[in-house]
Amino acid sequence: MKKLSELRSQLDRCSKCGNCQAVCPLYLETKREPLVARGKVFLLDNLIEGRVGWSRRMEEVISLCLLCRTCEVNCPNGVQVARLVLAARAELALARGLSIWKKTAFHYLLTSSGNLNLLARLLYLYQRSGLQSVARKSGLLQALPWGLEDKERLLPMVGRRAFARTVPPVMEAPGEKRRVGYFYGCMTNHAYPGIGQAFLTVMQANGVTVVLPPQVCCGLPALASGDREAVVKLAKRNIGWFRAAGVDRVVVDCASCGSMLKEYGELMGTREAGEFSQKVRDVAEFLTEEVDIRPGAYPVEMTVTYHDPCHLKRYQGIHRAPRELLHAVPGLALREMEGADRCCGSAGSFNLTHCRLSMRVGSHKTRNILATGAEAVVTGCPACRLQLAKGLEQGGSAVPVVHTLEILSRSYLGGKEMG
Ligand code: SF4
Ligand code: SF4
Asked: May I ask the CATH class of domain 4-96?
């Protein structure tokens, strides 16, 4: 993992052309020059040269980035803005230390599936016992500090039991053709177990045996907050468990987790981490490139639109594969929206730290979705799914958001409603 000072050449590449201004979702929302890539490059250059220090303003500017890489793909000089911002956040975390909340989350909660299960259980009780509606109606949440009311509304509805606790550690496929490890991630495990079930259905239908080794968070929230020590801790555990499972592929249904797992090798610089990253495939990538996928028997008669997650399109270069899968589903019509690859505003935990700005970014996506008249939105990232669903809900729409796998699963099983 490179330090900010080692990325000096990235700063020198910026010609101040301003192309990034036209595309940065945060600049378009705020019109603040320091938030656009050019502004960040200018400030980081001053920081490295010692002309400015870690002021509050500097901290704020560095926290205000979606890491969406939209600026990077429109930059004529290839400035790697996300890499610069991540290095700056790591430096800031070392200089100032992380809050007690973040430290607890990254080092005690996310490193232990048992602790995360316990938290999910408490959240489940809060959401289903009636406490949540009392807290909302009584005005208690509005009285709490730190914008907790907004944050609370963005929490996903958690399931009664974690997905991983409802399935055996190995799901043998009849007439096995392949055997893969499944990294299901925290969101599928706790908020969207239906995605996990759909993963298993699709793999079974295509002769792929699925091994579910123990696992912890991929580390992306810690990386985005500058806590590289926590990332290494999490990565070592995941690498060890998947190695012990003896699988030659690690298949992921979450764009954010997938891009993180693919970066373990570069971040850690060890042979073991590099070998692990080589094995990682997004599920759409795996199904289109490595499986002779069997078409579903049941038509899915509906019109959908597809949202490209930043971590799938710009981080992993995957945008045709999910569309290929959808086009192959009998009865399904795909209607493209304007700005399908525009960031939805979720950006890891950005929607929790900057709720209102994140929803403003997402409001464009909501409008574009609704303009298609589609009956559902499909995406390949559970975090985007949550953000898109909240945006649609705020916009008064009941259009469901589903994962590509859930559409495929329905074409294999027939019947059930989605979303
Ligand atoms: S597009 Fe690239 S080179 Fe141009 S101002 Fe933005 S970061 Fe600098
Ligand atoms: S990564 Fe996204 S949010 Fe950050 S500066 Fe670039 S375009 Fe703006």
From this structure: mainly alpha
Rounded to the nearest 5°, which phi and psi values hold at 280? -80, 135
**CA distances (Å), origin 22, targets 61, 240, 323, 374:** 18, 44, 27, 28
Contact 62/21 with Cβ under 8 angstroms?
no
CATH number of 163-290: 3.40.50
68 lines ligand 2 (CB under 6 A): yes
Whose alpha carbon is nearest atom 2 of ligand 2?
68
Coil, strand, or helix at residue 88?
helix
The CATH architecture annotation of domain 302-413 reads 3-Layer(aba) Sandwich (3.40)
Model confidence at 272: pLDDT above 90: yes
The mean per-residue pLDDT over the stretch 25-29 comes to: 96
Alpha carbons 306 and 37: distance in angstroms, whole number: 27
Q: Is the shortest distance between the CB of 62 and ligand 2 below 6 Å?
A: no
| pTM for the predicted model, two decimal places | 0.92
For residue 269, pLDDT over 70 is answered with yes
Give the side-chain half-sphere CA count within 13 A for 377: 33
Residue from 413, 397, 405 nearest 378 by CA: 405
8 A C-beta contact, residue 393 and residue 368: no
Residue 100 has pLDDT above 90, yes or no: no
- Among the residue ranges 24-28, 94-98, 113-117, 257-261, the one predicted with the least confidence is 113-117
Which token pair is 376? 């559902």
How far apart are alpha carbons 70 and 58 in whole angstroms? 22
